[in-house]
Amino acid sequence: MIRVIVPATTANLGPGFDSLGMALSQYSIFECEAADDINIEIEGLEADKLTVENNLVIDCMNRLFEYIGNYPKGYRLKIINGVPLARGMGSSAAAIVGGLMSANALMGFPLEKEDILKLATEIEGHPDNVAPALLGQLIVSTQTKDGEIVYQTIKPFEDLECVLFIPEYEVSTSDSRGVLPKRISMADAVHNSSHLALLVMGFANGNKDLIAKTMDDKIHEPYRKILIKQFDDFKEAALNSGAFAFSLSGAGSTIIAYVSKENSENVCKSLQRVADESNLEGKAVILKPCTNGAICEIS
Ligand code: HSE
């Protein structure tokens, strides 16, 4: 039996639009074994919203079989979803990485992780969620003009925790990308590139003060805020209750606060209070950075 475990991810972390992402301690699981025919079961979080007919995990498995030019006779696959859909927590990245890694294991590991990252980025369109889903930790990544995926991994500092408010309502990535401007000003481009460079240094050095000063975005969050209920209230509550930084998680609808471990309970209560006071359904949760990324167990 092949068992692939893939973490949720948060992307962008403010100014790192499409280039910065971090793996989180919440997981989808994919169990797979060779069989004579194809049999697929779907369980777990929001499983009623997932179908076998239109399924990213299965599409990615087929993509890998096509890529290596070799197809199995059949397989049994159980998807145990653990990442909420269309909330900005990397559900599609988890499905892509889960499908590719399951198919790779089923065929005897013909591809290396770097090949899987390239395929996953082609499917997702940008590497910011798929890279940490596959490799774990905080990853800054890009695709060069030659098509190469270049990335650097940063180990999150010891007492970093994340408090997320995961609303019941969904925001599709296409809607959230649809509100973005076609062009940005030179001033906003300079703001983001300088803030991102310093933010990455802040994470690399565990410098919370630098992270606090530089997690500020001007090219996507200001436009996306219209889709995100109580964004400003959540931000104010998080920063006033002990978080040192705050961002939209990926394309939303989840928001995420970055905290030192000793403040996470307080920030969690504070975010839940904002939601309760505005009758917004959803749940505040505390997650840790996931350091190992996707793992594949064979039993
Ligand atoms: N970087 C992506 C975005 C993440 O913000 O649209 C969601 O796929």
Automatic annotation (TrEMBL):
Instruction: List residues of the GHMP kinase N-terminal domain.
Output: 55-137
Q: What class of enzyme is it?
A: transferase
Q: Which reaction does it catalyse?
A: L-homoserine + ATP = O-phospho-L-homoserine + ADP + H(+)
Alphabetically ordered keywords of this record? Amino-acid biosynthesis, ATP-binding, Cytoplasm, Kinase, Nucleotide-binding, Threonine biosynthesis, Transferase
Pfam families linked to this entry = GHMP_kinases_C, GHMP_kinases_N
Q: What does this protein do?
A: Catalyzes the ATP-dependent phosphorylation of L-homoserine to L-homoserine phosphate.
Q: What is this protein called?
A: Homoserine kinase
Lineage of the species this protein comes from? Bacteria, Bacillati, Bacillota, Clostridia, Peptostreptococcales
Q: Which gene encodes it?
A: thrB
